From TrEMBL:
Component of the SWR1 complex which mediates the ATP-dependent exchange of histone H2A for the H2A variant HZT1 leading to transcriptional regulation of selected genes by chromatin remodeling. Involved in chromosome stability. It comes from the Eukaryota. Pfam families: Actin (PF00022). It is found in: Cytoplasm. Residues 309-328 are annotated as: Disordered. SMART domains: ACTIN. This is Actin-like protein ARP6. PANTHER family: ACTIN (PTHR11937). GO terms for cellular component: cytoplasm; nucleus. Residues 312-322 have a biased composition (Basic and acidic residues).
Length: 470
Protein backbone atom coordinates (compact mmCIF):
# COMPACT_ATOMS: atom_id res chain seq x y z
CA UNK A 1 0.00 0.00 0.00
CA UNK A 2 1.37 3.42 -0.94
CA UNK A 3 2.16 5.82 1.89
CA UNK A 4 -0.59 8.21 0.78
CA UNK A 5 -3.11 5.36 1.01
CA UNK A 6 -2.33 4.36 4.59
CA UNK A 7 -5.25 4.65 7.02
CA UNK A 8 -5.48 7.90 8.94
CA UNK A 9 -6.08 6.00 12.18
CA UNK A 10 -2.37 5.46 12.81
CA UNK A 11 0.18 7.17 15.02
CA UNK A 12 2.99 8.61 12.95
CA UNK A 13 3.26 6.34 9.93
CA UNK A 14 3.19 2.83 11.38
CA UNK A 15 1.81 2.36 14.89
CA UNK A 16 -1.95 1.62 14.98
CA UNK A 17 -3.77 4.25 17.00
CA UNK A 18 -6.16 1.70 18.51
CA UNK A 19 -4.29 0.82 21.73
CA UNK A 20 -5.23 -2.24 23.78
CA UNK A 21 -3.87 -2.15 27.35
CA UNK A 22 -3.27 -5.54 28.97
CA UNK A 23 -2.17 -6.03 32.58
CA UNK A 24 -1.62 -9.79 32.65
CA UNK A 25 -1.78 -10.55 36.37
CA UNK A 26 -1.35 -14.00 37.88
CA UNK A 27 -4.81 -13.93 39.49
CA UNK A 28 -6.76 -11.70 37.10
CA UNK A 29 -6.21 -10.06 33.73
CA UNK A 30 -7.10 -6.39 33.46
CA UNK A 31 -7.76 -5.53 29.83
CA UNK A 32 -9.46 -2.93 27.67
CA UNK A 33 -8.96 -0.27 25.01
CA UNK A 34 -7.62 3.16 25.90
CA UNK A 35 -10.04 6.04 25.53
CA UNK A 36 -9.77 9.43 23.87
CA UNK A 37 -8.01 12.37 25.49
CA UNK A 38 -9.68 14.40 28.25
CA UNK A 39 -11.60 11.35 29.48
CA UNK A 40 -12.11 11.13 33.24
CA UNK A 41 -10.60 8.24 35.17
CA UNK A 42 -14.07 6.97 36.05
CA UNK A 43 -15.05 6.83 32.37
CA UNK A 44 -11.71 5.28 31.44
CA UNK A 45 -12.18 2.50 34.00
CA UNK A 46 -15.53 1.68 32.41
CA UNK A 47 -13.51 0.30 29.49
CA UNK A 48 -11.54 -2.08 31.74
CA UNK A 49 -12.63 -5.67 32.18
CA UNK A 50 -11.29 -7.96 34.90
CA UNK A 51 -10.87 -11.57 33.76
CA UNK A 52 -9.86 -14.56 35.92
CA UNK A 53 -6.51 -15.77 34.60
CA UNK A 54 -7.16 -19.45 35.12
CA UNK A 55 -8.84 -22.60 33.89
CA UNK A 56 -10.99 -24.28 36.54
CA UNK A 57 -11.85 -27.95 36.67
CA UNK A 58 -14.81 -28.59 38.95
CA UNK A 59 -15.45 -31.71 41.01
CA UNK A 60 -17.71 -32.87 38.14
CA UNK A 61 -14.58 -32.68 35.92
CA UNK A 62 -15.96 -29.87 33.78
CA UNK A 63 -13.51 -27.24 32.54
CA UNK A 64 -14.31 -23.53 32.86
CA UNK A 65 -12.09 -21.04 31.04
CA UNK A 66 -11.59 -17.50 32.37
CA UNK A 67 -14.95 -15.76 32.95
CA UNK A 68 -16.83 -19.06 32.62
CA UNK A 69 -15.59 -19.83 36.14
CA UNK A 70 -18.45 -17.60 37.33
CA UNK A 71 -20.74 -20.50 36.43
CA UNK A 72 -19.18 -22.78 39.04
CA UNK A 73 -21.52 -23.30 42.01
CA UNK A 74 -19.69 -26.08 43.86
CA UNK A 75 -16.16 -24.89 44.63
CA UNK A 76 -15.23 -27.79 46.88
CA UNK A 77 -12.39 -29.81 45.32
CA UNK A 78 -12.12 -27.43 42.35
CA UNK A 79 -8.68 -27.46 40.71
CA UNK A 80 -7.09 -24.35 39.22
CA UNK A 81 -4.67 -24.25 36.31
CA UNK A 82 -2.82 -20.94 36.17
CA UNK A 83 -0.41 -19.95 33.35
CA UNK A 84 1.66 -17.78 35.70
CA UNK A 85 3.83 -19.35 38.39
CA UNK A 86 5.89 -17.34 40.86
CA UNK A 87 5.03 -14.24 38.87
CA UNK A 88 6.43 -15.61 35.59
CA UNK A 89 4.36 -16.56 32.55
CA UNK A 90 5.51 -20.14 31.94
CA UNK A 91 2.50 -21.85 30.34
CA UNK A 92 1.59 -20.21 27.05
CA UNK A 93 -0.64 -23.13 26.06
CA UNK A 94 -3.04 -22.32 28.88
CA UNK A 95 -2.59 -18.56 28.49
CA UNK A 96 -3.40 -18.73 24.79
CA UNK A 97 -6.62 -20.58 25.55
CA UNK A 98 -7.60 -17.91 28.08
CA UNK A 99 -6.69 -15.02 25.76
CA UNK A 100 -8.49 -16.57 22.79
CA UNK A 101 -11.63 -17.09 24.85
CA UNK A 102 -11.54 -13.64 26.47
CA UNK A 103 -10.24 -11.37 23.72
CA UNK A 104 -10.19 -12.94 20.27
CA UNK A 105 -13.38 -15.01 20.05
CA UNK A 106 -16.33 -12.77 19.23
CA UNK A 107 -18.77 -15.29 20.69
CA UNK A 108 -17.16 -15.43 24.14
CA UNK A 109 -15.25 -12.14 24.54
CA UNK A 110 -16.96 -9.13 26.07
CA UNK A 111 -17.41 -5.95 24.06
CA UNK A 112 -14.76 -4.25 26.19
CA UNK A 113 -12.02 -6.77 25.42
CA UNK A 114 -12.85 -8.13 21.96
CA UNK A 115 -9.95 -7.46 19.58
CA UNK A 116 -11.51 -7.71 16.14
CA UNK A 117 -8.38 -7.12 14.10
CA UNK A 118 -5.00 -7.37 15.90
CA UNK A 119 -3.21 -6.03 12.82
CA UNK A 120 -4.93 -2.67 13.38
CA UNK A 121 -4.23 -2.68 17.13
CA UNK A 122 -1.25 -1.73 19.27
CA UNK A 123 -0.82 -3.96 22.33
CA UNK A 124 0.56 -2.38 25.52
CA UNK A 125 1.65 -5.41 27.54
CA UNK A 126 2.46 -4.94 31.25
CA UNK A 127 4.90 -7.55 32.57
CA UNK A 128 6.50 -8.26 35.93
CA UNK A 129 9.65 -6.26 36.76
CA UNK A 130 12.90 -8.05 35.90
CA UNK A 131 11.19 -10.89 34.04
CA UNK A 132 13.64 -13.55 32.86
CA UNK A 133 14.90 -12.82 29.30
CA UNK A 134 13.93 -16.28 28.02
CA UNK A 135 10.34 -15.75 29.14
CA UNK A 136 10.29 -12.25 27.65
CA UNK A 137 11.40 -13.74 24.34
CA UNK A 138 8.64 -16.35 24.52
CA UNK A 139 6.04 -13.66 25.14
CA UNK A 140 7.30 -11.49 22.29
CA UNK A 141 7.27 -14.36 19.81
CA UNK A 142 3.82 -15.65 20.76
CA UNK A 143 2.24 -12.20 20.76
CA UNK A 144 3.74 -11.08 17.46
CA UNK A 145 3.60 -14.36 15.56
CA UNK A 146 0.43 -15.96 16.90
CA UNK A 147 -1.82 -12.90 16.87
CA UNK A 148 0.17 -10.48 14.72
CA UNK A 149 -0.51 -7.19 16.48
CA UNK A 150 0.22 -4.19 14.29
CA UNK A 151 2.08 -2.52 17.16
CA UNK A 152 3.58 -3.83 20.38
CA UNK A 153 4.92 -2.23 23.55
CA UNK A 154 6.17 -4.31 26.48
CA UNK A 155 6.82 -2.49 29.75
CA UNK A 156 7.20 -3.09 33.48
CA UNK A 157 3.71 -2.96 35.00
CA UNK A 158 4.50 -0.98 38.20
CA UNK A 159 5.98 1.90 36.19
CA UNK A 160 2.60 2.56 34.55
CA UNK A 161 1.25 3.76 37.90
CA UNK A 162 3.36 6.91 37.54
CA UNK A 163 0.96 8.09 34.80
CA UNK A 164 -2.06 8.07 37.11
CA UNK A 165 -3.28 11.35 38.58
CA UNK A 166 -1.60 10.80 41.96
CA UNK A 167 -1.19 14.42 43.04
CA UNK A 168 -4.56 14.58 44.87
CA UNK A 169 -3.86 11.53 47.06
CA UNK A 170 -0.44 12.83 48.11
CA UNK A 171 -1.55 16.40 48.85
CA UNK A 172 -2.41 17.54 52.36
CA UNK A 173 -5.89 18.93 52.88
CA UNK A 174 -4.51 22.35 53.80
CA UNK A 175 -1.95 22.49 51.00
CA UNK A 176 -2.71 24.35 47.76
CA UNK A 177 -4.00 22.12 45.00
CA UNK A 178 -1.69 21.16 42.17
CA UNK A 179 -2.27 22.73 38.79
CA UNK A 180 -4.57 20.75 36.52
CA UNK A 181 -1.79 20.67 33.91
CA UNK A 182 0.21 18.39 36.23
CA UNK A 183 -2.49 15.72 36.22
CA UNK A 184 -1.33 14.20 32.93
CA UNK A 185 2.39 14.33 33.73
CA UNK A 186 4.04 11.26 35.27
CA UNK A 187 5.17 11.57 38.88
CA UNK A 188 8.82 12.57 38.85
CA UNK A 189 9.71 10.26 41.75
CA UNK A 190 7.41 7.41 42.73
CA UNK A 191 7.97 4.28 44.79
CA UNK A 192 5.54 1.56 43.67
CA UNK A 193 4.86 -1.42 45.92
CA UNK A 194 2.97 -4.07 43.96
CA UNK A 195 1.64 -6.78 46.27
CA UNK A 196 -0.24 -9.27 44.16
CA UNK A 197 -1.06 -12.95 43.93
CA UNK A 198 2.40 -14.50 43.60
CA UNK A 199 4.84 -11.97 45.03
CA UNK A 200 5.44 -8.41 46.17
CA UNK A 201 7.82 -6.04 44.39
CA UNK A 202 9.29 -2.67 45.29
CA UNK A 203 9.92 -0.56 42.17
CA UNK A 204 11.31 3.00 42.30
CA UNK A 205 10.33 5.00 39.21
CA UNK A 206 11.82 8.22 37.89
CA UNK A 207 9.71 10.13 35.38
CA UNK A 208 7.72 7.02 34.58
CA UNK A 209 10.70 4.71 34.07
CA UNK A 210 11.70 1.96 36.54
CA UNK A 211 15.13 2.10 38.18
CA UNK A 212 16.01 -1.56 37.62
CA UNK A 213 19.02 -1.77 39.93
CA UNK A 214 16.85 -0.77 42.89
CA UNK A 215 13.95 -3.17 42.28
CA UNK A 216 13.44 -5.65 45.12
CA UNK A 217 11.16 -8.66 45.36
CA UNK A 218 9.50 -10.41 48.30
CA UNK A 219 8.35 -13.93 47.45
CA UNK A 220 5.10 -13.65 49.37
CA UNK A 221 1.74 -12.71 47.89
CA UNK A 222 -1.95 -13.41 48.16
CA UNK A 223 -1.50 -17.07 47.18
CA UNK A 224 0.80 -17.68 50.14
CA UNK A 225 -1.60 -15.97 52.54
CA UNK A 226 -4.44 -18.16 51.26
CA UNK A 227 -2.37 -21.33 51.66
CA UNK A 228 -1.32 -20.37 55.18
CA UNK A 229 -4.91 -19.60 56.14
CA UNK A 230 -5.95 -22.93 54.61
CA UNK A 231 -3.49 -24.80 56.83
CA UNK A 232 -4.53 -22.86 59.91
CA UNK A 233 -8.26 -23.42 59.40
CA UNK A 234 -7.74 -27.09 58.57
CA UNK A 235 -5.95 -27.60 61.89
CA UNK A 236 -8.28 -25.53 64.07
CA UNK A 237 -11.70 -25.89 62.44
CA UNK A 238 -12.53 -27.81 59.25
CA UNK A 239 -10.41 -29.59 56.67
CA UNK A 240 -10.38 -27.15 53.73
CA UNK A 241 -7.24 -28.40 51.99
CA UNK A 242 -9.23 -29.05 48.80
CA UNK A 243 -11.21 -25.81 48.98
CA UNK A 244 -8.80 -23.11 47.84
CA UNK A 245 -11.47 -20.80 46.44
CA UNK A 246 -13.51 -20.94 49.64
CA UNK A 247 -10.47 -20.10 51.77
CA UNK A 248 -9.56 -17.26 49.43
CA UNK A 249 -13.06 -15.83 49.91
CA UNK A 250 -12.61 -16.09 53.67
CA UNK A 251 -9.34 -14.18 53.43
CA UNK A 252 -10.92 -11.43 51.34
CA UNK A 253 -13.88 -11.13 53.72
CA UNK A 254 -12.25 -11.09 57.15
CA UNK A 255 -8.47 -10.58 56.96
CA UNK A 256 -6.87 -7.35 58.17
CA UNK A 257 -3.38 -6.13 59.00
CA UNK A 258 -2.80 -5.31 62.64
CA UNK A 259 -1.08 -2.07 63.64
CA UNK A 260 -0.48 -3.46 67.13
CA UNK A 261 -0.02 -7.22 66.98
CA UNK A 262 0.55 -7.72 70.69
CA UNK A 263 -2.61 -5.82 71.64
CA UNK A 264 -4.77 -7.68 69.13
CA UNK A 265 -3.44 -11.05 70.28
CA UNK A 266 -4.26 -10.07 73.85
CA UNK A 267 -7.78 -9.09 72.85
CA UNK A 268 -8.40 -12.50 71.32
CA UNK A 269 -6.78 -14.30 74.27
CA UNK A 270 -9.00 -12.49 76.77
CA UNK A 271 -12.08 -13.33 74.79
CA UNK A 272 -12.71 -9.64 74.03
CA UNK A 273 -14.63 -9.21 77.29
CA UNK A 274 -12.66 -6.28 78.63
CA UNK A 275 -11.11 -4.94 75.46
CA UNK A 276 -10.53 -1.21 75.45
CA UNK A 277 -11.72 0.99 72.61
CA UNK A 278 -9.03 1.34 69.98
CA UNK A 279 -8.06 4.59 68.32
CA UNK A 280 -5.35 5.92 66.05
CA UNK A 281 -3.80 7.74 68.99
CA UNK A 282 -3.27 4.42 70.76
CA UNK A 283 -1.57 2.98 67.67
CA UNK A 284 -4.40 0.62 66.83
CA UNK A 285 -7.15 0.51 64.26
CA UNK A 286 -10.91 0.13 64.07
CA UNK A 287 -11.74 -3.06 62.19
CA UNK A 288 -15.25 -3.79 60.88
CA UNK A 289 -16.53 -0.86 62.95
CA UNK A 290 -16.44 -3.06 66.06
CA UNK A 291 -13.52 -1.93 68.14
CA UNK A 292 -14.18 -4.24 71.07
CA UNK A 293 -14.35 -7.53 69.14
CA UNK A 294 -11.77 -9.09 66.86
CA UNK A 295 -13.53 -12.42 66.42
CA UNK A 296 -15.92 -12.98 63.53
CA UNK A 297 -18.22 -15.86 62.68
CA UNK A 298 -17.93 -17.16 59.14
CA UNK A 299 -20.70 -19.17 57.48
CA UNK A 300 -19.28 -21.63 54.96
CA UNK A 301 -21.10 -22.32 51.67
CA UNK A 302 -22.94 -25.60 51.25
CA UNK A 303 -22.92 -25.55 47.45
CA UNK A 304 -26.73 -25.77 47.29
CA UNK A 305 -28.46 -22.99 49.17
CA UNK A 306 -25.33 -20.91 49.69
CA UNK A 307 -22.66 -20.75 46.98
CA UNK A 308 -20.42 -18.17 48.68
CA UNK A 309 -19.73 -17.86 52.37
CA UNK A 310 -20.12 -14.68 54.38
CA UNK A 311 -18.91 -13.16 57.65
CA UNK A 312 -21.06 -11.88 60.47
CA UNK A 313 -20.59 -10.53 63.97
CA UNK A 314 -19.44 -13.07 66.51
CA UNK A 315 -22.16 -14.39 68.79
CA UNK A 316 -20.56 -15.45 72.12
CA UNK A 317 -23.79 -16.84 73.61
CA UNK A 318 -23.98 -20.43 74.79
CA UNK A 319 -26.76 -21.26 72.31
CA UNK A 320 -24.57 -20.11 69.45
CA UNK A 321 -21.70 -22.23 70.75
CA UNK A 322 -23.94 -25.29 70.83
CA UNK A 323 -24.98 -24.63 67.22
CA UNK A 324 -21.34 -24.38 66.13
CA UNK A 325 -20.52 -27.70 67.81
CA UNK A 326 -23.56 -29.30 66.19
CA UNK A 327 -22.43 -28.03 62.79
CA UNK A 328 -19.08 -29.78 63.25
CA UNK A 329 -20.62 -33.15 64.14
CA UNK A 330 -23.62 -32.94 61.77
CA UNK A 331 -22.78 -30.48 58.99
CA UNK A 332 -25.68 -31.68 56.84
CA UNK A 333 -28.25 -30.62 59.42
CA UNK A 334 -27.23 -27.05 60.07
CA UNK A 335 -25.34 -24.11 58.67
CA UNK A 336 -21.59 -24.60 58.91
CA UNK A 337 -20.12 -21.85 61.07
CA UNK A 338 -16.65 -21.27 62.45
CA UNK A 339 -15.27 -18.50 64.61
CA UNK A 340 -12.11 -16.77 63.39
CA UNK A 341 -9.96 -14.84 65.83
CA UNK A 342 -6.25 -14.26 65.48
CA UNK A 343 -6.31 -16.02 62.08
CA UNK A 344 -7.66 -12.77 60.70
CA UNK A 345 -4.49 -10.78 61.31
CA UNK A 346 -1.73 -13.34 61.99
CA UNK A 347 -1.85 -14.58 58.38
CA UNK A 348 -1.30 -11.16 56.68
CA UNK A 349 1.45 -10.49 59.24
CA UNK A 350 3.68 -12.78 57.16
CA UNK A 351 4.13 -9.99 54.60
CA UNK A 352 5.72 -7.81 57.26
CA UNK A 353 7.48 -10.52 59.31
CA UNK A 354 8.29 -13.58 57.15
CA UNK A 355 10.37 -14.93 60.04
CA UNK A 356 7.07 -15.87 61.71
CA UNK A 357 6.89 -18.91 59.41
CA UNK A 358 10.63 -19.57 59.33
CA UNK A 359 11.50 -17.62 56.19
CA UNK A 360 14.81 -15.77 56.00
CA UNK A 361 13.44 -13.16 53.61
CA UNK A 362 13.22 -9.57 54.84
CA UNK A 363 9.82 -8.08 55.59
CA UNK A 364 8.13 -5.61 53.28
CA UNK A 365 9.42 -2.51 55.07
CA UNK A 366 12.97 -3.89 55.03
CA UNK A 367 12.64 -4.59 51.29
CA UNK A 368 11.74 -0.93 50.81
CA UNK A 369 14.82 0.17 52.76
CA UNK A 370 17.02 -2.15 50.68
CA UNK A 371 15.58 -0.62 47.52
CA UNK A 372 16.09 2.94 48.76
CA UNK A 373 19.71 2.19 49.66
CA UNK A 374 20.49 1.91 45.94
CA UNK A 375 19.36 5.50 45.34
CA UNK A 376 20.98 8.87 46.17
CA UNK A 377 19.97 10.24 49.62
CA UNK A 378 17.97 13.15 48.20
CA UNK A 379 16.03 10.80 45.96
CA UNK A 380 15.43 8.43 48.88
CA UNK A 381 13.60 11.14 50.81
CA UNK A 382 11.41 11.96 47.82
CA UNK A 383 10.60 8.32 47.14
CA UNK A 384 9.52 7.55 50.70
CA UNK A 385 7.26 10.61 50.59
CA UNK A 386 5.65 9.36 47.36
CA UNK A 387 4.93 5.69 47.98
CA UNK A 388 1.91 4.02 46.42
CA UNK A 389 0.67 0.48 47.05
CA UNK A 390 -1.09 -1.45 44.28
CA UNK A 391 -2.24 -5.03 43.79
CA UNK A 392 -4.85 -7.15 45.50
CA UNK A 393 -3.17 -7.21 48.92
CA UNK A 394 -3.31 -3.42 49.10
CA UNK A 395 -7.05 -3.83 49.62
CA UNK A 396 -6.54 -5.65 52.93
CA UNK A 397 -7.69 -3.25 55.67
CA UNK A 398 -4.77 -1.80 57.59
CA UNK A 399 -2.13 -2.66 54.96
CA UNK A 400 -1.30 0.93 54.04
CA UNK A 401 -1.33 2.19 57.63
CA UNK A 402 0.93 -0.63 58.86
CA UNK A 403 3.45 -0.10 56.09
CA UNK A 404 3.58 3.61 56.82
CA UNK A 405 4.13 2.89 60.53
CA UNK A 406 6.97 0.46 59.79
CA UNK A 407 8.68 2.84 57.37
CA UNK A 408 8.38 5.71 59.83
CA UNK A 409 10.57 3.81 62.30
CA UNK A 410 13.19 2.97 59.66
CA UNK A 411 13.91 6.31 57.97
CA UNK A 412 15.23 9.64 59.17
CA UNK A 413 12.93 11.68 61.38
CA UNK A 414 13.05 14.70 59.08
CA UNK A 415 11.86 12.67 56.08
CA UNK A 416 8.09 12.78 55.50
CA UNK A 417 6.57 9.32 55.04
CA UNK A 418 3.46 9.07 52.88
CA UNK A 419 2.04 5.74 51.81
CA UNK A 420 -1.12 5.88 49.72
CA UNK A 421 -3.24 3.71 47.45
CA UNK A 422 -5.67 4.32 44.63
CA UNK A 423 -9.39 3.83 45.18
CA UNK A 424 -9.13 0.56 43.24
CA UNK A 425 -5.67 -0.87 43.76
CA UNK A 426 -6.34 -3.83 41.45
CA UNK A 427 -6.95 -1.78 38.29
CA UNK A 428 -4.45 0.98 39.15
CA UNK A 429 -1.74 -0.36 36.82
CA UNK A 430 -4.17 -0.77 33.92
CA UNK A 431 -5.50 2.75 34.45
CA UNK A 432 -1.96 4.13 34.34
CA UNK A 433 -1.38 2.35 31.05
CA UNK A 434 -4.64 3.67 29.61
CA UNK A 435 -3.73 7.23 30.66
CA UNK A 436 -0.30 6.82 29.09
CA UNK A 437 -1.90 5.64 25.86
CA UNK A 438 -4.36 8.53 25.58
CA UNK A 439 -2.31 11.42 27.04
CA UNK A 440 1.20 10.55 25.86
CA UNK A 441 0.84 9.19 22.36
CA UNK A 442 4.37 10.28 21.54
CA UNK A 443 5.78 8.08 24.31
CA UNK A 444 3.92 5.06 22.98
CA UNK A 445 5.09 5.78 19.44
CA UNK A 446 8.69 6.10 20.62
CA UNK A 447 8.74 2.84 22.58
CA UNK A 448 6.41 0.59 20.57
CA UNK A 449 7.48 -1.40 17.53
CA UNK A 450 5.55 -2.40 14.44
CA UNK A 451 4.89 -5.86 13.09
CA UNK A 452 7.02 -5.01 10.06
CA UNK A 453 9.97 -4.06 12.30
CA UNK A 454 9.63 -7.33 14.20
CA UNK A 455 9.44 -9.39 11.01
CA UNK A 456 12.52 -7.65 9.65
CA UNK A 457 14.71 -7.70 12.78
CA UNK A 458 13.49 -10.62 14.89
CA UNK A 459 12.97 -11.28 18.59
CA UNK A 460 16.60 -10.67 19.64
CA UNK A 461 16.46 -7.12 18.27
CA UNK A 462 13.10 -6.61 19.96
CA UNK A 463 14.52 -7.69 23.33
CA UNK A 464 17.39 -5.21 22.98
CA UNK A 465 14.97 -2.46 21.98
CA UNK A 466 12.79 -2.85 25.07
CA UNK A 467 15.81 -3.33 27.34
CA UNK A 468 17.22 0.04 26.31
CA UNK A 469 13.95 1.99 26.27
CA UNK A 470 11.99 0.76 29.31
Amino acid sequence: MARSQRPASRLGTDIPQNIFVLDNGAYTIKAGFSQSENTSDADTLQACDTIPNCIVRSRERKAYVATRSDEVTQWSEAVFRRPIENGQLVNWEAEKEIWDYSMFDEKTASKKTFVRNPADTTLMFAESPNTMPALQKNADEVIMEEWGFGGYMRTAGPSLNAYNDLHPIFEDAEAPKAQSSLANLPMECLLVIDSGYSYTTVTPCFEGRPIHRAIRRLDFGGKHLTNLLKETISIRHFDLHQDTKIVNDIKEDVAFVSRNLKADLERVWKGNKKAKAYSLSSDTMDVDGQQADVRRDYVLPDGVNLTRGYARSHDPSKDAEKKRKLAVSHPESNEIVMTLGNERFVVPEVLFNPADIGSKQPGLADCVIQSLSKLPPLVQATMVANTIVVGGNASIPGFVERLQDDLRTRVKVEWPVRVRKMEDSVTSTWLGGARLACNHRGVVQRYAVTKAQYDENGSAWLARHFATTR
